Amino acid sequence: MPRAYDAASVEQRIYQTWWDAGYFVPRTDPDRQPFCVVMPPPNVTGELHLGHALTASLQDALARWHRMCGDPTLWLPGKDHAGIATQWVVERALAAEGTSRHDLGREKFEERVWEWVRLYGNTIDEQHRRLGASCDWSRLRFTLDPGPVHAVRTTFVNLFDKGLIYRHERIINWCPRCATALSDLEVEYEEQDGKLYHIRYPSADNPDDGVTVATTRPESMLGDTGVAVHPEDERYADKIGGMVTLPIAGRQIPVVGDTAIEMEFGTGALKVTPGHDIVDFEIGERHNLPILTVIGFDGCMTDAAGPRYSGMERFAARDAVVAELEAIGVLEGVEDYHHSVGHCQRCNEVVEPLISLQWFLNVGKHDQPGTIAGNAYGAVVNRDIEIVPDRFSRVYLNWLENIRDWCISRQLWWGHRIPVWYCAACGGHSAHVDDPAACSQCGSADIEQESDVLDTWFSSGLWPHSTLGWPDAQSADLEYFYPNSVLETGYDILFFWVARMIMLGIENTGDVPFRSVYLHGMVLDAQGQKMSKTRGNTLDPLDLLEQYGTDALRFALTTGTAPGNNLRLSDEKLESARNFANKIWNAARYVISVVETRAASGNDELGDWYHLPAPANREDRWIVSRLDGLTAAVNQALSAFELGEAQQKIYDFAWNDFCDWYIEMAKVRLRDAASADAGVAATTLVHVLERSLRLLHPFMPFVTEEIWQNLTARISATGVGLPASIMVSSYPVVDTPRSAPDAESDVEVVMQTVRAVRNMRAQLRIPAGQKLEAAIETNGMGAVVEEAKEVISVLARVEPLRVLDAGESEAMSGISLVVNPLVVRLPLEGVDLQAESDRLRRELDSRRQDETRKEQLLANPNFVSKARPEVVENERQRLRSLTEERQRIEDIIAQLDA
RNA sequence: GGGCGGUUAGCUCAGAUGGUUAGAGCGUCUGCUUUACACGCAGAAGGCCGGGGGUUCGAGUCCCUCACCGCCCA
Length: 898
Prior knowledge:
Elements: H1 11-21, E1 35-38, H2 50-68, E2 73-76, E3 78-79, H3 83-96, H4 101-104, H5 106-120, H6 123-130, E4 141-142, H7 146-161, E5 165-175, E6 180-182, E7 187-202, E8 210-215, E9 226-229, E10 243-245, E11 252-257, E12 269-272, H8 278-287, H9 314-327, E13 331-344, E14 352-361, H10 372-381, E15 386-388, H11 391-401, E16 406-407, E17 409-410, E18 420-423, E19 429-431, E20 447-449, E21 453-454, H12 456-460, H13 463-466, H14 476-481, E22 484-490, H15 494-509, E23 514-520, E24 523-524, H16 541-548, H17 550-558, E25 567-568, H18 571-600, H19 618-639, H20 643-670, H21 676-696, H22 701-712, H23 741-763, E26 772-777, H24 782-796, E27 798-803, E28 815-819, E29 822-826, H25 833-859, H26 861-866, H27 869-897
Parallel strand pairs: 1-2, 3-4, 9-11, 15-23, 22-23, 24-25, 26-27
Antiparallel strand pairs: 5-6, 5-14, 7-8, 7-13, 9-12, 10-11, 14-16, 17-21, 18-19, 18-20, 26-29, 28-29
Helix pairs in contact: 2-17, 10-11, 10-15, 16-17, 17-18, 18-20, 18-21, 18-22, 19-20, 19-21, 19-23, 20-21, 20-24, 21-22, 23-24, 25-27
The chain binds one RNA strand through helix 11, strand 25, helix 18, helix 20 and helix 23.
């Protein structure tokens, strides 16, 4: 084994062996509760970024843990056609070639996208393999596969036939560049510097009087059909019910009173443009104002804007309108104004609210039981679905409380084409799962399918069941793996995706899609900035895993962070994780070298190293007790989705308890290779290492497998029945009562003793190579110290070390270290006795303070009567120990002063 | 305008159900080629847990309030 762990030389080889062995494919067992998680399907043309790496690391850790626990485990991978995103990418490619989708036509364009998918669609799968993702590639799904397509159509037709899907003309968010409708969620609001224009609309009966309105979008005034003021606004009391003249257009429009108007904002008068503003649309509905569309689907002014503006691009029209308003003297002022403007999530174009004929899903209201929204609301309120961390439950519920019908149609060519057919003969339309040959109402063959496609999230909303075979009720996978166990994803798509899956999952199957939702945070750069291509601060996970190793990348992404919290990724964090992989590697190299050396000299008996039911040696009892404590804590943390905590605990145990202390202590016993105790130590080393590897495997799959293979190849596993790979071995559980608090506290005293001597050596600047003479007063711990004599001697570099008999005391000439109950005497030459006395007095003072604090606490009758008994007992014991320690220091000072 | 999160060591972050002396990584300082590891070892310094108030025998943890930063929704 090389001195340093070389990730590059092992990862791809190991991954291949796992896949070849079929470990990723679940072995279903009707008697066992399965574990199932579906991968959030990445865009089919996408490339792996750190968000994918994070989500995959977490899902893989969960999947590997459950698989090792013996649960039939399915991690189902897939990809999303990502309608608007993919169409956008291909359209850009076409533009570069000097052509467009309109030149190609719908069919040729679709074929072109499929070509693109065939070319780049596998990239991200390969990248997931590099990450070590243990997903079942034999079940890989694509949202445009026949199964999911069938599920989408079935869902649509069911909802259509129930009357919940309807077509309606309504104001929606429109992206003029993508030329499609967007859902509310696909609009991103950005704060921008703009202008607030004050425009006077003269009164119809008195052109010298009028109402001044304030707007950030003066071009939209061409579509105004009213002015609204608050009914209680005294400034406008005489205007309500009257008419004003719309400048430029010259139309007369009414002034209405509406309580939605904020009197404090602007002039307190709002121009109402029902055709181009969602709030105005609602005001218009309340007052029966006509709707005028002055901006078209192409982002240019329509004929309704008047001959001078018709055909003019909307922002050019803004300038022209302002100029004209100024010219005719109604522009009363312009002020700088900071406001938020909606942009297309995909192409960043400024979104235009427009009246348009679209398809909607009626989701009902959250407080109407039995509606889609009502069921989705109830599932979380009733805890049928648990969201981790819990605070996102409220975010989810708040969103549902304000939900509106979902605009599901998109004017795109790439996606699930809406399965509705219009009949030219009878004018009717109907929805069908299978393409019909003729009108279902009049039988005419003159039918045509709706040209719109569905919102991408409509199909991903079916993901937990559409991937498992729904609507085929006979599907074994659906029967066995639905509901999924966990849905793991980022909080940024809680509404887009998680909420839709809950809505459509319950609608289609009558059951929740998953039991738990685990939400992770966003990966930020070292400065806490969101990573984005435009900022140029993205890190490529492929580069990182080559540089640091996949295990290090995974560990860095998932350790030291709590669920739902963002994390900053830095070189330091990656280095630290890589160092940890290397630390484990080297600890293993040592243990393996011990096994090999012993085997070479015929000492290859390791006994029942796998179970190690009842170690006898104190140090072994200590490390095994610590290991069991770790095992319990890790299992508990994993059950609570606290993966970061679990990993931190393994890290601490492996590095501190095992490497820094146990291995170093074991070396002392291993010096006499022929001794029985050396064999016992070797056995414990193997036991602890092997279990630690299994604990760590879900998080660092590659290095643990590589070590595990190296280790198990060199040891006899008679009677254990070791599997061929660590990934199908069993996850450690605390199954034997090996807890040894006495050994833990005894070894703690030994470690404190070593630390105290080392500390003093450093303070006195005694070179590491120089041995020190020492004597220890044992005060009741004679047996422990006697047995640990060699360990203390070697680790603290004291020699000779005398263990004093009970009652025996050392004549005082040097330094005394109190490690209660022990006193370590270092009879150094030339110690300044006054300085030593001062040092001890300082220590005494600090001890007395602690003691006084404890005494006061225990003297408080409220504490003694109200605190839990075990807490009080704890404090009493602590006080006894402090008192004892204080007395020992006092004794030494007395000797010194004598 | 409403809501959520954050504020803990120089930096980045952990700290279930309130309970010993608040932890880690990185960084800093002092030593060390101690045969698993310098991607390392040993030692050390560094914190009125954002401010204020409250509940409690006891608060980083629970409640109220204020401030600043970030995010979501409108």
